[in-house]
Amino acid sequence: MTFHELKVSEPILKAIDAMGFVEPSPIQREAIPYLLQGENVVGQAQTGTGKTAAFGIPMVEKTENQRFTQGLILVPTRELAIQVAGELQKIASHKKGLVILPIYGGQSIERQIRSLSRGVHIVVGTPGRILDHLERRTLHLDHVIFCTLDEADVMLDMGFIDDVRAILSRVPEKAQKALFSATLSPEIKRLVQDFVENPRFITIPHKELTVPNISQFYYEVRESEKPQALTRIIDYYNPNQTVVFVNTKVGVEELKEKLHAAGYEVEALHGDMKQTQREFVMKRFRAQHFDILLATDVAARGLDIENIDLVVNYDLPQDEEYYVHRIGRTARAGREGTAVTFVTLREIKRLKEIERYIKTRIERRRLPTLQDIEKIQTQAILDEIASVIEEGGLEKYIDILTEGLSTYDSVDIAAALLKMVMGEQPEEELSPVEENSPTVRLFLTIGRETVDIRGLLAWISDLTGIRSQELGRITMREGFSFVDVPREKLDDFLSRLDRQKYKGKTVRVEIARERK
Ligand code: AMP
Known about the structure:
516 residues; 17% strand; Rossmann fold; 4 domains; alpha/beta; globular; seven-stranded parallel sheet
């Protein structure tokens, strides 16, 4: 079964293809035809079944580029609003001009009003904030033709039932309705009875949850950039617990040292450890005594920990089956997870093979910059501030501020506090591992295919007089090598070695590119 057979239109087929969806999930197979025909649907389905696209595809199909809101999606949380709006945006990426906006509490209402006034075709929002806009008359639902309730059971659990009913009563009666919920409690059934006329019921049994909730990305990195890429990724995704897969035991140990040096709490798991040792590490990881575990494939067998939300393939797995097994360590017990894979240029082909094997496209991403990370961290703090404000009980602090700092502007005070909370941010794009390092990493265009490590050391010592004991870490690859050289020997090393010949081949030596 293909999306084409479900009568999805060309621009959307293109978008879905780009999203890496190869075939429709069970709920999509059932719901999309009904919804495209204009029928109402009540679907019993959890996250991870592909329900967003199940209603998102027909909704985008039916929405036209006209100046009023035609689609309304109610969701319980701000995270879901952002996520659902993001997925719909992708689905609509080849439909020109469609505007899809997430709307939730805690975000500046003025900004939302400005966006709404410019015209939004599909609104994805939390009930409280949507109702707020309806009351302010900054959102109009008279032209809505398609309305979806996503995670209806969660909305009711969160006490939104009155808001939901108030909103639904303002949606035109003839608008098409879809409701998704993990459970169909009596309260949900009453809601359906009152607002969803003559629906088709779809139930997706648990074992058919074929689409696991794992977002998969890859990052193109150089071998030498990997340690820093990893810390970036961890800072950016800010996971609860991470498992990092490295192909070799030596690799695991090396990485562990680097991460320790950069201030990360990590432990290792590999085949050289005794069973009792391994069990001890796993137990501590499960109890969340530390949050980053470095592991080889063999050692990680049977690792079943619910909290792992990020898996990093630091090295590309040697076997497709390993890939499946590795990423399966995340998104346990119906949770969501992210799997990130580092790929060097020459490994791209292998990655394509893995994609073919798992029948899913792995999306390419660019490494987050320090600014991206700072932005994310600032946003997290702003969110926290918003929720503290909404909680109330600030009178005591307001009094203190108005007495103690009455000469300052409140925005200045807030900015100063934010600066204090954020701490000093590094200004340069430099690896914490390398800062002030007494050695310099050099890149040599000679590798294992030409010489072994002893030969290389002998050649270096011959030409520069620098002996192997004075050198730091040496990494040899097929066509090139890295050598750590004491900073004070750098000039000698470069002037005596660069462009010298080894067995007739000119060898270039340069400072390894700074990690960006
Ligand atoms: P959902 O249940 O809507 O939260 O979707 C779970 C995840 O599965 C999301 O990351 C979707 O992008 C993805 N997904 C949805 N439908 C498909 C499909 N037909 N093929 C592959 N992935 C899908």
